Amino acid sequence: MKTNQLMSVAFPQGTLEIFHKTAMGNLTDLFSLGNKQRGKDDNAPVNMTLFLKSKSTEEFISALSEELGIDKNDVIKRKGRGRNSKTYAQLHFLIYCAEKLSPRFHVRVIDTFISHNILQIRDDGGNAFKALNVAIDAYLPEREGKESNRGIYIQCAKLLRDKVFFDKDIDYPKDGLVWNSDYATYDKLQLRDKYEEKLITLLEMGVVRNYEHLKEFIEKLK
């Protein structure tokens, strides 16, 4: 996807906001999650402000900016003003902070962003959704010559979302295109991509008769 969308990544103690293109994540979220794990491990919380002012942290930021060829001021950035302001940091720095906060939390951050590469999965998922829309435009019978199939895109996204999450009690966002919920884990995103690829194949093969038939296929996806 071309747009730098803000996604919410699920962890056991809550979620972390991160932009999927620039990999700039909410540092306040990270410290909140890490300190919750520290509490479970009977350790005192780490103060983010004091941590950022420490000599070791400043040394890491200097090394990071030199190795990546970026300005020090681009490692950590504040967005907004006052109580609504948020602090975001580059992914390498998030991982560094996670290491200092909690060994267990550090492993989870590495597993999510490096082993599972959830940001790339999110990007691929956006491309898969676009590909499904293209297939609907090109191959869905009874939609030839229609000016826009946006309504069908949205309804299919909602049906797929419900199919993937299997929980009718969740109060999902009203926008059917939103997938960046607290429940958008690696496994769920992978399953969604698998389902979208199957639907694209069915459309291209001419198996789908019309929109109602397409909805039936979505319900039967496995």
Number of H/I helices: 9
Order the strands across the largest sheet as they lie in space.
3-5-4
Number of domains: 2
* Whole-number mean pLDDT: 82
Question: Whole-number radius of gyration?
Answer: 21 Å
According to CATH, the fold-level topology of the largest domain is Mlu1-box Binding Protein, DNA-binding Domain
Write down the overall geometry: elongated
| Annotated CATH architecture of the largest domain | Roll
Low-confidence stretches: 172-182
Order of helices and strands: EEEHHHEEHHHHHH
- What is the CATH class designation of the largest domain? Alpha Beta
Strand content: 5-15%
Helix content: 55-70%
* Terminal Cα span: 26 Å
State the secondary-structure class.
Answer: mainly alpha
Largest sheet: 3 strands, antiparallel
Number of strands: 5
